Amino acid sequence: MASDIRNIVILTGAGISAESGVATFRGPDGLWEGHRVEDVATPEAFVRDPALVHKFYDARRSALAAVEPNAAHRALARLDAEWPGELLLVTQNVDDLHERAGSKRLIHMHGELKSGWCLRCNQRSAWNGAMGQGAECPACGTTGLVRPDIVWFGEIPYRMDEIESALQACDLFVSIGTSGAVYPAAGFVQTAHYCGAQTLEMNLDPSLGSYLFDEARVGPAGKLVPAWVE
Ligand code: BJW
């Protein structure tokens, strides 16, 4: 890494977890029982058919138990532990593979599968298996009003102020395994670039926004990320 780099922001998407066996959203296998993610990941879908939405997230939550962090997650955790400057890992993923690999300076901008959000008292709590069946909120005791703590289309992602500040201050912005189809994450490269950062993409295929990066490396994250971190 160039010696003038001190502050790094890394954005990850579904592609970084693909080699762990977690399905991506928009690839050939990107449908869930015939539904597009846009049809199940919206507040309107939850009002229309909460059972379907809970089923979608229950399936994804159960699948988590069978997967492990891969070489790319582990390499980023190593970088986090050893990097002396500022570093922020922003993930769009709702799995917990970055923290299981050991990353600490981490923001889940689209929420977390293992968290529930009570619409009555506004508290977040660890998800328990019965929440989707109308179990009580552990904070206020109300039943049936806990939804998955996931940022759906039309909702504001978490901790945007911190992310924006980090993007404006970084010297290097790295995007890994994301199609660049979903905003605001797809626009981070432009913010970082306008604020003077170098920009690097690592993706299996060039993303929709590849042309915006100073450098785009094409290949699997499990190979590219450890090679970049070393
Ligand atoms: C590999 C690999 C390997 C595979 N190695 N790579 C029109 C224009 C612009 C914006 C909008 C618009 N209409 C609506 C909007 C806004 C909307 C949006 O962006 N819509 C688009 C679809 C157009 N965005 C929102 O609504 C967001 N909120 C918002 O904008 O609020 C307003 C606001 C915000 C901030 C400031 C001010 C105002 C909220 C978006 C919420 C997204 N939610 C989801 C679902 C929840 C999480 C979940 O259930 O898991 O998040 S959608 C889904 O897409 C999920 C993902 O996090 C997100 C991104 O997907 P990702 O990670 O890029 O995955 P894929 O599958 O698309 O791509 C995988 C990539 O990996 C591919 O490129 C592969 O090649 C690659 N790959 N194997 C490396 N081994």
UniProtKB/TrEMBL annotation:
Its main location: cytoplasm. Zn(2+) binds at residues 118, 121, 137, 140. Substrate binds at residues 57, 60. The active site is at 110 (proton acceptor). GO terms for cellular component: cytoplasm. Keywords: Cytoplasm, Metal-binding, NAD, Transferase, Zinc. Binds 1 zinc ion per subunit. Its cofactor is Zn(2+). GO terms for molecular function: histone deacetylase activity, NAD-dependent; NAD+ binding; protein-malonyllysine demalonylase activity; protein-succinyllysine desuccinylase activity; zinc ion binding. Residues 1-230 form the Deacetylase sirtuin-type domain. It is found in: Cytoplasm. Gene3D superfamilies: SIR2/SIRT2 'Small Domain (3.30.1600.10), TPP-binding domain (3.40.50.1220). It catalyses: N(6)-acetyl-L-lysyl-[protein] + NAD(+) + H2O = 2''-O-acetyl-ADP-D-ribose + nicotinamide + L-lysyl-[protein]; N(6)-succinyl-L-lysyl-[protein] + NAD(+) + H2O = 2''-O-succinyl-ADP-D-ribose + nicotinamide + L-lysyl-[protein]. NAD(+) binds at residues 13-32, 92-95, 177-179, 203-205, 221. PANTHER family: NAD-DEPENDENT PROTEIN DEACYLASE, NAD-DEPENDENT PROTEIN DEACYLASE SIRTUIN-5, MITOCHONDRIAL-RELATED. NAD-dependent lysine deacetylase and desuccinylase that specifically removes acetyl and succinyl groups on target proteins. Modulates the activities of several proteins which are inactive in their acylated form. Belongs to the sirtuin family. Class III subfamily. This is NAD-dependent protein deacylase. It comes from Sphingomonas sabuli. The lineage of its organism: Bacteria, Pseudomonadati, Pseudomonadota, Alphaproteobacteria, Sphingomonadales. The gene is cobB.
